[in-house]
Structure formats: C-alpha cells, structure tokens
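Side project, low priority. Logging it here so it doesn't get lost.
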Amino acid sequence: MAEPILALKDVRAGYGEAVVLDGISLELPENGSLAVLGRNGVGKTTLLLTIMGFTDVRRGTISWRSNDITAVAPHRRVRNGIGWVPQEREIFPSLTVEDNLTVASRPGSWTLKSVFELFPRLAERRNNMGNHLSGGEQQMLAIARALMTNPALLLLDEPLEGLAPVIVDELTDAIRRMTADAGTPFILVEQHADLSLALTDQAIVLERGAIAHRAPSAALLQDHATLDRLIGLRIDESRAATSS
C-alpha cells in the first residue's frame, strides 16, 4: 500500500495553554480529498492551522510524505508543497490580480495561463487591484494564488463562506476541475455540508476537538440522521442531488 501524502497521529494541539485538538489521527492518500465538518468552534480551522504549523503541538506527530514535520516552520511546509487558502483570503489589496499571482509563483503546471483558464473572471480583471474585486473574485484570487505555488496538497478553509449562489457554483466547479485536471489532493473545511461532501472522497466530523465520525463522503451525504445529530444541519436533498 502506498504511503499517505499526509498523516497525523494522535495529535494534541492548540494555542499556548489552550488545547483545541485532542487525539487527532488521519491519513490522506495521494490524489485524495477530505471534507472536515463540524459545528462552529470544534477545531476545524485549528486542524488546518496545525497542518500548516501555526499551533502548539503538545503530543503526536505530523508526517509529510513519511517525513516528520511536526516541528517544521510554516514557510518550509509551503516549500515542501502544502498550499493554504485561509478563511480571511489575505490577498494583497494594493497589488493587481496578476501581481498577486506572480509574486507567489513557483515552477510547475499551474501558471498564469492555467489559473486564468480555471478562473476566467480573474483574466478579465488581471489589471485590477485586489481591493477593487468583489468578495467572490477575491476568493477566486486566493485559491488561484495558492495554486500558483504548485502545491502537492491544498488546504481550503471555508472558501464558500458568505458568497452569492452563482459564485458558489463557479467555485465548486473550479474545485472539481482543479482536482480532475491536476489530481491535486485537498482538505476542505466548509459549512456547506452537501457541497463539501459532493466534492470529496472521505469525510470526518469533529466534535470538541476530536474526530466523532469518519465515513466515505458519498455515504455520509446520504446519512442525514448522523449529519443532523453531529452538525445540527439538515441537508437540502434537492441541492445534494444536483451537486453529486
């Protein structure tokens, strides 16, 4: 069996004295995708921040391609191939779209041409400043900028939050194409359970900083009782059917 690209083993982590994650173990295979679900405040964003190296790990290990990176600095994790799209987007407001992309670029298959093909709106606005974009366009730019680092793994923290339905549709289509064309593995934290499960292979549900449930995404998408119990969110069945 092939080694996972990313593995967490019994990870206990948080901020200073505050423990947020406790006993997290998971593996992500090459070309795999994982949805991270849960109510607000259960540690979903902290999980991504821990993978990126921004939290205090008190126990356990984080392995990247079989190498222990538990104590590796965040910028070195990026160089090793972990891309991150933070919830706050963090684009450069005073740079143009094109400059936002080229400043992050590293050699690989993702180039200006390929990200503009993925996000035609950005191609149309390539000379616009970051702070002149709509919220949806800024989210597209944040994802495109992460892709320009040519990551071997992409972490997406609530990329659909607060966006208009038409933009949500464009972004979910882009994520599908991104994975279909490049096979980029990704971990998706998202409040839209139906969409995140339709986009991924596997899913975990966090509760009080621990994994309360694991399942194939397709199976969990149909398990409305478990979703309602653990997330308190009922799936829109008509939307789920069109998303799958």
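Brief comment: Residues 237-244 have pLDDT under 50 and may be disordered.
Revisit when time allows.
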